[in-house]
Design goal:
Blueprint: E1 11-18, E2 25-31, E3 37-42, E4 50-52, E5 58-60, H1 63-73, H2 81-95, E6 101-103, H3 104-118, H4 120-130, H5 136-154
Parallel strand pairs: 4-6
Antiparallel strand pairs: 1-2, 2-3, 4-5
Helix pairs in contact: 1-2, 1-4, 2-3, 3-4
This protein binds zinc ion.
Length: 156
C-alpha cells in the first residue's frame, strides 16, 4: 500500500477488522519509512450483494429471480409487469444500503410491504412462499390482519 504521506510502499498492517454487516475490511497501517499511520478499506472488487437465506446459505442477489417470485404471486391479478418492475427497482434501491450482504427475510418483508398496498391476494401468496408460514395459526393471523385492513380501506 502506498503511504499517503510519503509515498513509500513499505508498510505494515497493525490491525485488520471486518466492518459489521459488510464484507469490507478495515486495516490500520503504519508506514515503515515515515512512521505515520493511516487506514485503508478493502472490499471485493466486484460489488455483488449476497443474500443470506433462512438456512444461512448465501447466494448472489438475483434481480430476475426476485422479479419472477413477485410475478408468480401476482399471477392472474391486476398487477402490471411495470408495477413488478417498480417493486423490484425500489427494493433493489433500498437494499443497496446493505453493501455486501442482506438477509433474504429483509428483501421479503420489503416486497410484502409494497404488495400490501397493491394487491391483497398477491400479498398473501407472496407471504406464504416467503415466510413459509411455520404453522396455520400464523397464516390465519396474517389473513385476519389483512381482512381488518381491507375493511378499513373500504370504509374510507
Ligand atoms: Zn510514509
Amino acid at each position: 500500500m502506498k503511504c499517503p504521506f510519503c509515498g513509500s510502499f513499505d508498510d505494515q498492517v497493525l490491525d485488520s477488522r471486518p466492518i459489521e454487516h459488510t464484507s469490507a475490511i478495515k486495516r490500520r497501517r503504519k508506514c515503515n519509512k515515515c512512521g505515520k499511520r493511516y487506514t485503508t478499506y478493502e472490499r471485493p472488487e466486484e460489488i455483488s450483494l449476497m443474500v443470506i437465506k433462512s438456512d444461512s446459505r448465501r447466494e448472489h442477489f438475483d434481480r430476475k429471480k426476485l422479479w419472477e417470485g413477485i410475478a408468480r404471486a401476482c399471477e392472474k391479478r391486476p398487477v402490471s409487469s411495470e408495477t413488478i418492475d417498480k417493486i423490484v427497482s425500489e427494493v433493489e434501491n433500498e437494499i443497496s444500503d446493505y453493501l455486501m450482504e442482506v438477509q433474504s427475510s429483509v428483501i421479503g418483508e420489503k416486497v410484502l410491504k409494497k404488495l400490501w398496498d397493491i394487491d391483497a391476494v398477491a400479498y398473501v401468496r407472496f407471504a406464504s412462499v416467503y415466510r413459509k408460514f411455520a404453522d396455520i395459526d400464523h397464516f390465519m393471523q396474517e389473513l385476519k390482519s389483512l381482512k381488518k385492513k381491507t375493511v378499513k380501506n373500504q370504509n374510507k
